[in-house]
């Protein structure tokens, strides 16, 4: 069993006191109140402000993470392996599983875990009850850099040819591959985003600073590309909204999936946001400069101060009462209690 160490941190809430005005402000989205009146704090803000953060040592350069019903799955860049993490103990359960060359993303469905590998253009299916690989690797498009699940399928964004491949999650067979949906400028993107929700597949095009929407039933584009912040890197779906991180201008954009329109101004976070995940009525953003930030969907603003982590956070997932953050530089997976 792999050695796991923890570093407990207490993340303090922001508190601004002014003797002359006697007001308190927190998170940039709350209304100022007289000091004599207790400020109401949302559960989301309290969680972000007072969570214990544990950084679990996971050797092998963890680059991506996903949560299934009974485990957390971590892609290890060194050796192209996937490790199963016990969410209660924080320890690696068994030996890591070897998958395709250049494993870069992971997603969990009912009973299975799917890993996409960018160098051999495949998806590996793992039975989560046995930790055994199911069948042969599934061939997809060229240089797949992102994977997502939904609508009874597993999807990959193949960045070199700008296509999206749909795999039947029951049979493991490729159902269709879309036509090119992004321009050639996104062909060698270091980052790629993909999400499924509201009957659509949402594809991030980093070089074009847009999000392309595909009809999930036909795997064909619908509507015009949606302009977001410069250099988008990832996308996540929840409750009628698609959330998109933009590396180049340090922001998060919110798209109304009903209308396809960007809602209000992008949320300015600063830094270098590279990954986003949704769950527990909140949105969480990983910044490769070393922080994780919670966004409150109701206020459309950051819910408190960023949580500082060591190293370079690259991916995150929500499950088992925590936010899980993969950090290849520090060889850690952070567990942030909700």
Protein described:
The protein has 338 residues and is an all-beta fold. The protein has one helix at residues 43-50, and strands at 9-10, 23-24, 33-34, 52-57, 62-67, 72-76, 81-85, 97-98, 103-109, 112-117, 122-127, 132-133, 138-139, 144-150, 153-158, 163-168, 174-177, 194-197, 200-205, 210-215, 220-221, 226-227, 232-238, 241-246, 251-256, 261-262, 267-268, 273-279, 282-287, 291-296, 301-302, 307-308, 315-319, 322-327, 332-337. The protein has one domain (54-337): 7 Propeller (Methylamine Dehydrogenase, Chain H). It is built from 1 helix and 35 strands. Strands 1-4-35-34-33 form a 5-stranded antiparallel sheet. Strands 9, 10, 11, 12 and 13 form a 5-stranded antiparallel sheet that branches. Residues 1-50 have low confidence and may be disordered.
């Amino acid at each position: 069993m792999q050695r796991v160490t923890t570093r407990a941190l207490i993340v303090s809430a922001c508190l601004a006191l002014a003797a002359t005005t006697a007001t308190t402000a927190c998170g940039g989205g709350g209304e100022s109140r007289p000091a004599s009146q207790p400020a109401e704090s949302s559960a989301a803000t309290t969680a972000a402000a007072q969570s214990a953060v544990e950084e679990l040592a996971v050797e092998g350069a963890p680059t991506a993470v996903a949560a299934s019903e009974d485990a957390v799955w971590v892609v290890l860049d060194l050796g192209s392996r996937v490790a199963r993490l016990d969410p209660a103990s924080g320890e690696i359960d068994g030996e890591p599983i070897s998958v395709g060359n250049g494993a870069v993303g992971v997603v969990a469905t009912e009973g299975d875990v799917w890993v996409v590998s960018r160098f051999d253009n495949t998806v590996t299916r793992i039975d989560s009850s046995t930790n055994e690989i199911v069948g042969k690797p599934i061939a997809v498009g060229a240089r797949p850099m992102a994977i997502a699940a939904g609508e009874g399928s597993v999807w990959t964004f193949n960045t070199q040819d700008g296509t999206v491949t749909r795999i039947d999650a029951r049979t493991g067979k490729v159902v269709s591959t879309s036509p090119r949906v992004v321009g050639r400028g996104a062909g060698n993107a270091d980052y790629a985003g993909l999400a499924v929700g509201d009957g659509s597949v949402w594809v991030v095009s980093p070089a074009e600073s847009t999000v392309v929407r595909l009809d999930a039933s036909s795997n064909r584009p619908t509507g015009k590309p949606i302009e977001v912040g410069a250099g988008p890197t990832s996308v996540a779906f929840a409750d009628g909204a698609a959330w998109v991180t933009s590396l180049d201008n340090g922001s998060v954009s919110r798209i109304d999936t009903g209308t396809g329109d960007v809602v209000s101004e992008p949320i300015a976070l600063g830094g270098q946001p590279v990954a986003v995940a949704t769950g527990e009525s909140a949105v969480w953003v990983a910044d490769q400069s070393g922080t994780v930030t919670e966004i409150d969907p109701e206020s459309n603003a950051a819910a408190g101060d960023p949580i500082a982590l060591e190293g370079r956070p690259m991916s995150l997932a929500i499950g088992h009462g925590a936010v899980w953050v993969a950090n290849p530089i520090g060889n850690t997976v952070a567990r942030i209690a909700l």
